[in-house]
Amino acid sequence: MAPEGDLASPGRRRILGKFRNDTMRNKLAILLLSLATLMARAQMVEESFARDPGPLDFVKGEGYEQAILQALTGDALVGLDAAGKVVPRLAASWKLKDGTYLFKLRKDARFTDGSPAEAEDVVWTFRAILADPKASPTKRAILEGARVELKDGQVALQSPRAPGRLLMELARIPIAQRGHPDRGTGPFLLRHDNGEWRLLRRDHFLKPGIEGLRFRILGDGQAVAQALQKGWLSLGVPPARLQSQPPPGYRVVTQPMTYQLVVWSRMGLAPLQAMERWRKDAFPPQLLGAGARPSRGLWPGVLGFEDQEIDAATLPLPKGRPLPLLYAAGDEPVEKLLMALRERARRDGVQIDLQPLDPALLADRLQKGDFQLACYLATFDPEPWSVLEYMEPHGPLNFTGWSSPALARIVASLKAPGDAAWTDLQALWAKAPGALPLVDFHSILWVDKRLQVTPGLLGLYLSTPGAAGWRWEK
Fold first, then answer.
1. What CATH number does the domain containing 136 carry?
2. Mind listing the pLDDT tens digit for each residue in 72-89?
3. How confident is the model at residue 359, as a pLDDT?
4. Shared-domain flag, residues 42 and 97
5. Residue 16 confidence (pLDDT) above 80
6. Same domain membership, residue 140 and residue 108
7. Residue pair 89/82 in contact by the 8 Å Cβ criterion
8. What pTM does this model have?
């Protein structure tokens, strides 16, 4: 939604100009999709991005679209299968010895220039992430405090993280070639030109079963819905109101992913306490559709956490001023949910000032803590350790600078899911949380009936083998 004000203002002109450009781009992308479908329907998987993922970069690249490109073109040391279990990927085997993980790489992995993947490439990638202040915040947080070196031709990795947690999180760090952060060993080769991202099948140890994938930007839900209705996409996310009614040729696939629409507050507890009340009845069922429900508690229940509300005395909201809430422009479903939240707040006499930002600018503002209230989609790994991203000093979801002197002691006591220390951790967060989930999502897709895919806890792309395991029915 464009901000209120003078229609002729420079800011409004820029927004309207961007809207016209996006509209033209969507129309062109739909035309190209239709032509491509007619020419090679059974060869390439046709998909879409909501936004430009930016250049492929295994060190600096961040964001969901970038993560998809990296998962398709690179290999991490380990992967997570559809059930969330750690499986080999670039590493053929590993062992834990005296607090150090030793990884032995497989011998058949090759970079795009044909050179073999070696332990030196893993060490270079990890050290580059640790040394570069502009590296991916998610990856830097995983490797914080880690030491990596070569030992008898293997990768030796020490970390202050719990061993089980570290092993799972390494699945989020695909390995780049030494000195070439844009080269990986993955099952597909990236070609980016003329507004499309083509991923072409490589000779790879995962033995990809499809020729490749082609992505184009469709920046709004209406464009995606039109492309799906016309059969121009092999898969895509339909609008909430249509999720259970796929057109002929498609089937419904539900992914058991863990992701939430979350609000972070640098205005203290009062706005979060108010939103905790509003979320219970702010979102009409027809708006949520089949793939979403209002959040309960502070952390995802599917990760094993009991519903826990904010455990603090109710504070009054600031008087006489609206609540400024930043969110990513161009995400139509999220915008509609936030508009419903705004309407609910009005019933209590509170004004929420929705302020859309370019997604890259919003991400930058979040990282810098340059906001009062901000809304963002947070995706969690399928294990309880992932909630620590909210709390640890450099956690990728700790946008508010949240801290507590008790955190280190409790984290040191976390050994396995279900331990009593997890209850202590949740109680610590509940006294003064920095964020509140509003909506829990299940990812519902329409998928071409001829395309065999495997949904998983990390979605279709980020699990192993991911898209490399897809097949077209003959």
1. 3.90.76.10
2. 999 999 999 998 899 999
3. 84
4. no
5. no
6. yes
7. no
8. 0.77
Residue corresponding to tokens 């479903």: 333
Task: Mark 352-381 as b/e (b = at least 16 C-beta within 10 Å).
Answer: bebbbbebeebbeebeeeebbbbbbbbbbb
Angle between helical axes of 270-278 and 332-347 (0-180°, round to 10):
100
Using the structure block, give the residue that is written with the tokens 């499809």.
Answer: 210
**What is the residue-wise DSSP string for 199-225?**
EEE-S-TT---SSEEEEEE--SHHHHH
Tell me the residue range of the domain where 280 lies.
256-441
- Report how far apart, in Å, the C-alpha atoms of 246 and of each of 124, 227, 238, 447 are: 46, 12, 8, 9
Express the helix, strand and coil content of the chain in percent, nearest 5 each.
35, 25, 40
- CA angle 271/277/279 to nearest 5° reads 95
User: E-assigned strands of 68-220?
Assistant: 78-80, 86-88, 91-97, 100-105, 147-151, 154-158, 188-193, 196-201, 212-217
**Cα–Cα distance for residue pair 176/105, rounded to 1 Å:** 14
The predicted structure's pLDDT at residue 374: 98
The CATH number for 22's domain is 3.40.190.10
Tokens read off for 148:
């990596």
Q: Is the per-residue pLDDT at 20 higher than 80?
A: no
